[in-house]
Amino acid sequence: MGNENTNWGQSVTGVVIKEDKVLLARHTYGGGKGMLIIPGGYVNFGETPQEALVREYMEETQIEVKPMDIIGVRFNMHDWYIAFRAEYVSGEASSDHDENSEVLWIDVNEALSRDDVPELTKILIKSAISKDSGLIYKDYQGSTKHAPYSLYCV
Predict the structure, then answer these.
(1) Which residues make Cβ contacts (< 8 Å) with residue 62, sequence separation at least 6?
(2) CA–CA separation, 5 vs 76, rounded Å?
(3) Do 21 and 107 touch, CB atoms closer than 8 A?
(4) What's the CA gap between 124 and 144, in Å, rounded?
(5) Residue 133 vs residues 63, 72, 127, 153: alpha-carbon distances, Å
(6) pLDDT tens-digit series, residues 80-134
(7) Residue 2: is it exposed, middle or buried by C-beta count within 10 angstroms (0-12/13-18/19+)?
(8) Which has the closest alpha carbon to 72: 8, 130, 7?
(9) Would 141 be classed as within a structural domain?
(10) Which of 14, 46, 74, 131 could bond 86 through an S-S bridge, CB–CB 3.0 to 4.6 Å?
(11) 0.85 exceeded by the pTM?
C-alpha cells in the first residue's frame, strides 16, 4: 500500500481481458472489501500513470500489463482516477495477500452479472469491450521542461 512517495490525488486502474476473461481481484479493505474489482492504485510522485498501472498490476497480481487507450476518467473534489484498457503481457495471476485475497480470471459476461462486482468495475469492463475506441495514445514530445509527456486523444 501507500507510503510517503504516494500521490494521494492521482490513481489508476486498468481492465485486462484475455480469452474473453477479465482479471479481477477480491479487495480486502475499505468500501470495496470483499468485492471483485479491477486492480489499480495510487500514482507515486515522479511516476507516470502508465508506469503506475504496470507497477500496481505487478504488485497486486503478478501480471505484467501494457497500458493502451484510456477508457475512463473519474474526477471528484479530492482526486482523479484514470482507467486504461490494458493488454496482458505475461505472468500467472496470484494474490498479493495484502490488498486482495484472491485474483481470478472471470468470464466477462459472468463478471457483468455478479453481485460481488461493483458498478464502477462493470462500467469500466463495458467500456473496455466496447467497439467504440477510447482516447488513444499519440506520440507527443512537447517541451523538455516538464517531460515526459503523454497525450491521449480521439
Answers:
(1) 91, 92, 93, 94, 96, 103
(2) 22
(3) yes
(4) 34
(5) 24, 11, 9, 10
(6) 999 999 999 999 999 999 999 999 999 999 999 999 999 999 999 999 999 776 7
(7) exposed
(8) 130
(9) yes
(10) 14
(11) yes
Place of cell 505484467: 64
Residue that the C-alpha cell 489499480 belongs to: 40
For residue 97, the 8-state DSSP code is S
* Residues ≥6 apart with Cβ < 8 Å to 27: 33, 34, 35, 36, 37, 99, 100
Round to whole Å and give the CA distance between 69 and 152.
7
Query: Is there a contact between 81 and 11 (Cβ–Cβ < 8 Å)?
Result: yes
Of 11, 134, 130, which is closest to residue 68 (Cα–Cα)? 134
The CATH number given to whatever domain includes residue 46 is: 3.90.79.10
Q: Could you tell me if residue 101 is inside a domain? A: yes
The overall average pLDDT reported for the chain is 91
Whether residue 1 lies inside any domain: the answer is no
